[in-house]
Amino acid sequence: MDIDGAPPPLWTANSSSDSLSENEDEHLDFQDYEEPTLLEAEEPVPQTEDPLVETKQITESAIIHSREYQLEMLEESLKRNIVVTMETGTGKTQVAVLRIQAELERSTSGKIAWFLAPTVALGEQQTKVLRSQIPAVQIKFLSGADGVDTWSDTRTWNDCLRNVRVVVSTYQVLLDAVNHAFVRIDRLSLIVFDEAHNCRGKHAGAKIMARYHENKAAGLLVPSILGLTASPIIRSKVDSLEEIERTLDAVCKTPTIHRDQLTSVVKRPKMYRLFYSQPDYIRPTSNMNSLSSAYYSLDIYKDPTIIRLQRDDTERSRIELKKALQNRDTYVFNQLQSLWRKSTEIQRELGSWAADYFLHVTITQFVTSIKKNDSWLQGWEMKEKQYLAAALETVKISAPPPFKDDASSVDISDKVTVLTQQLSRAADGTIGIIFVREVATVAMLSHILSVHPSIKNRFRTGTMIGSSNYSGRKRDIGTLKRASDYQDLEDFRSGKLDILIATSVLEEGIDVPACNLVICFDRPDNLKAFIQRRGRARMRESKLILLLDNPTYQVDEWTAYEEEMKKRYEDDMRKVQELVDLEESEEPDVEPFFIPETGAQLDFDQAKSHLEHFCRTLSIRQYADLRPYYIYKRIQTSLKGSPQIRATVVLPMSLPPELRRVESDGFWFSEKNASKDAAFQAYIAIYKAGFLNDNLLPLADEITRDTQTRPGLTEVHEQWNPWIRIAHTWAHQTEVYQRRLRLRDRHGDIMCEFDASLPVCFPKIPDINIFWDRLNAWTIETSETKIISKKDLATDHSLALIDLANNHRNLKLRDSAQLILHIRSPAQDIPYQRLIGQKHVEEASLDGTVLIRNGEGYPCLFKAWLPSGDQTHLGIDIQHDGLRDVPCLMLERWPRRRDFLHCIPEDATLPAPSKPGKQKQTIWPAHLCRMDGIHISAVYFGALVPSITHIIEVYLVANELCNTILKDVKFLDLSLVATAISAPVAKEATDYQRIEFLGDSILKMFTTASVTANCPHFPEGYLDAIKTNIVSNSRLCRAAVEAGLDKFILTKNFTGAKWQPIYVEDLLKLHTDVGSKRTMSTKTLADVVEASIGAAYLDGGHDEALCMDKALICIRTFIPDVEWHSLDSARSALFSQTEMGTVLPDALAPLEELIGYRFRNKNLLIEASTHSSFGFVNAKGSCMERLEFLGDSILDSVIVSALWKYERDLSQGEMHLLRTATVNADLLGFLTLEWAIPQEATEISKNKTTIEKQTNVPFWKFMRHASPDMGTAQRTAEETHARERDIILEAIHHGTEYPWAQLAHLNIPKFFSDFFESVLGAVWVDSGSMDVCAQIVERAGILPYLQRLLADNVDVLHPKNHLGQLAGKSLKTVEYKTEVRETDGHRELFCRVIVAGEVLVEVGGGVNNDEIMTKAAYLAHKKLLQITEKQGKDVVDEDMVARMNEL
């Protein structure tokens, strides 16, 4: 074995005047080299790739002092654009930190410095560095994980970048932002390109710079440029240095003034060459031969992919089938080929033992995974697993012998032997990286080192390959199970591992500790790789070891390593296949599609990815293939030349027919360019059709930008105070408005009446319910308004009335002040304070018509006259001594309540007396008591003044709303408006909840109809986004505030507890209440908008057309920026948008009979029955998605209408539960399986006679589709329905509980219910009648079931809600845990319900999470109910025992 050490000198590359000569560029001297010593003894030794970054977490105090050569680079960068070219570990990032700091100092506040990193991991790393050293400004890291690809408007980007001065991101993030004109080039003051050598060709960095050059050529502002690289040369092309400089508009610079210091920092490793022998041919092992035989014996026609493509028989599948058969190109065949290639590579590199071990472990791992059906083979179809498993069962695999103390007994390669010998001789404290080319080799080499007798006890090894963690990606069969690579990297950083075996992913950027050993197990691919690997070995006395084969000539070849490498890559670029040469010769020169208004542009190379993203936004339906696919047509354009290609891109059926197939504009030599051209033309056509915004992004992204997460609370205007205006009006008004208020008892007899007057229009007030106590419910009714002259207004009795009822309370009564509400008795004068306790008690007058004042002046109700004698036996509080010989009164104290608008709950505890001994009934000597000089009914009325004033205030607020914001609605019933603005928290007699439920349904119906009519070509995904934006609570909340509705919403609960008389003179001091604020729930704001719509609808009375007109006017008032249609005009527009057809396909003819409706336009029913997958069969017409979108709201309206018309007023909660129970997809799916039409069928008997019979064709079978997977799902649902329908029908017809769990167990796909809704939508468009739609819902069985739910009071609350409510009463938490268990090869879904930390039930046999959790919740609720009832009974028994013990 020959070992020769020779580290190369420092690579330098400056501007054209300072650059190396051609010979210097092409040659690296590999003579023995002594490392330079440090110039200064105190200079620290760098221990990381970048001296700015500590090995562990960076803290705010981790500020690194810059070296002179870094400052030199800073100075150069301030003069011009440069690419800092310094080796790994010399602190290029610190130069960037300094440059950013300088830029922040000299640039304006609106400018941004943007740091570009090639990977997310490197971006996160650099962000930490920047934040640690520039803490005074906002530094933001952006990556795909932040959802930047969904930021579809400039406002979002502006909000994100508000007050941000430095941004770190990957290259693609900035490129997309620039291309879509979200971030303009002239907004950037500096761009830092980390790993700048990558900015070539079609790299994102090069494309960013293309926009830079456009601005510069136009004379616009451009940012400064700073590049960072260890080597600007990648493929060793002669002109690559100049290419990087041209692209970045910069010159490459390396320190020259402080070069000695840089040299002292660069700890160049000694380079050694270890030679190993590589045989020309290695005989495959028996395991490998068996694998090869299995591959060639496979019947490709049994491959699941081939079977599926044959079965699909579509245009796309036939193209794919031909290709797959010609190339034996299926996933399973490719996996076996890959397994063979990997085993061959491992045998060549590591030896036959490693190849056999690899095959043994791989195949065993696959078979085990199949048996366990675990997640390791995620993404694989079951048939693929079974097909491959069957093939692998024929492979005769024998496990290789284990390593023993003597490794020579194991057949490993000489290359591995050389490696292990070198490692075994390594000094203690060795920290190293072994670079390996192939991923499979990494895992196997790691295993060998972990079991090799001379290595396993010396080194702790890990791996790093950086493979994708995308969860939807199919797992490669040759990928060995292992722990996270990134965990190994962290362990290597922390010192838990000594050796890290890695692919090229570790060459560039990622921060790893400095090593003293780097081994290139395979030769570096290029100069860049060599320099970067060499840079990892930067500790003192470090080694760079290159493993090389063929020592007879390799020594001489390695002397000119870099020159040979450059020549090889130049040859590789010239020796390409003819097709590749043609592609290079026809480098597309297509001008980007440019939007002048925004500056956004579509790049030819990015059109395909943009088109795929657009298609994904069209729908989220099951079994709808939204991927665009390409059809190629080869055309011979000349006799001698190669044929050229034209491509057609086929787009989903959700789009209009004219956009579903788009051809490339030109002819191309390659399919790649032809498909790019087709995608480019298609995307332009889609933009011109209005499906993209001016940022060239799908409108669905823009539509939803305002549907933001709303805060729970927001600050709004204080409630409007009507009394302020009335107070000012009293001074100048010459006429007053008067209504008579009559207080009636529970028998309807008038107790008293008073005239109430206001200087403004006195709103019509419905009867006011008064709850004096539990036994006495009274009513105050109002008369019609009478207008009288203010001069004729007699003395106000309101103050006297208030004093009569509240004289014992601390009310601030002012005799000379005018009260806001004028009240006067029409029958008598009531002077202020003269009637209180006016008379002595006379027995003859004690008939309950007067109020008694006890000896303390407290008002009381007379209960009984007690003659002289001892009354202590009555058990009543006696308030005076010596009552034996005097007559007494039994009195009941005046109620302490001040709120008589709310009834006293039956279970309410009456307030205790405020003082000891103050019982409700007392006995007083008659001579100490006094009687009022007025009928007690006037005192009653005086007590009701606060309640009356509050009700008048509510209706004044409602009246003002009707006269301002809602004036166009022309409300007739003011009580509807008062209800609509009363939040539940206000606890008025009625609140908005019921009519909000109605308004919500009406708003969604109008929105759905209008949006669908306004956008005749928009797919469902767009329509749903628009609708969601309009009806979202955040949008309605904003509408309420913008309209000024917030100041009319009632949220304060009237209790009367702190009520004080309202005086005009006090209100005159308050000129306005504008500016005062209150906090309100944003949901309340949205709810009141919907409640107002519901109120407007109800105000139309029994005229349905008038109801809808009023509701629409209300909707337009709050949401004026939408082009609203009446339902009739929207339906007419939709009807005209569908081409008229009078003939149905034969297969659909029975569907009309089943639903009981004959279509005028048969094409509507065809569209309603066509799934989007059917476009592969027939691309004409449209699919069901738009009609289903419409039908969903129509079904909701039909159900809500039925609930609203029920014989009793259902609460909002009841209606919500019943609607959910009747429109959920599980029930609709079940009913579509039940709803069938009989068709005649015949059979021929053995004696050739015809047997006629009937067969039922269910509704769901009329849906047209072309998806094999969808067909399988339909059959599965049909089989499950047949097994379980009886128990569900029993529950529907006779059950006392809604069959939530049973319906969920059917696991019916949602497209069953979608089909019903699309047909319902088609019926409405064709008929224009909600009544006809209701008949369809009736025939389907939905309304009959709703009627039974109501009639029999069926429990429709979901079991999870039942359990949550019951547990919540005891403040217990509920948790659901599901898991899959496998027993004897059978997998079963289980659910445990944990209540208050203890397992209450465990249930198995689930088909999906929703079903098993519903089933478990049902059983848990029943069990918890039993426990709760038993605990309650035990408490009652304990109370009885305690009372008996007391007795």
Q: How many extended strands?
A: 38
User: N- to C-terminal separation?
Assistant: 107 Å
Order of strands across the widest beta sheet?
Answer: 3-4-2-5-6-1-7
The proportion of residues forming helix, as a percent range, comes to 40-55%
Indicate the overall shape: globular
Mean residue pLDDT: 83
Radius of gyration: 43 Å
Strand content: 5-15%
In the predicted model, the low-confidence regions spanning at least 5 consecutive residues are 1-65, 468-472, 552-559, 561-576, 910-917
The biggest sheet, with number of strands, parallel, antiparallel or mixed sense and barrel status, is:
7 strands, parallel
Structural class: alpha/beta
How would you characterize the overall build of this protein?
- This protein has 1447 residues and is α/β, with parallel strands linked by helices.
- The chain is built from 48 helices and 38 strands.
- A seven-stranded parallel β-sheet has the order 3-4-2-5-6-1-7, sandwiched between helices. A seven-stranded mixed β-sheet has the order 26-32-27-28-30-31-29, with no helix packed on it. It has a six-stranded parallel β-sheet with strand order 8-13-12-9-11-10, with helices on both faces.
- A hairpin with a 5-residue loop joins strand 22 (768-771) and strand 23.
- Helix 39 (1185-1204) runs antiparallel to helix 40, helix 40 packs antiparallel against helix 46 and helix 43 packs antiparallel against helix 48 (1409-1446).
- The radius of gyration is 43 Å and the shape is globular.
- It starts with 21 loop residues before the first helix and ends with a helix.
- Residues 1-65, 468-472, 552-559, 561-576 and 910-917 have low confidence and may be disordered.
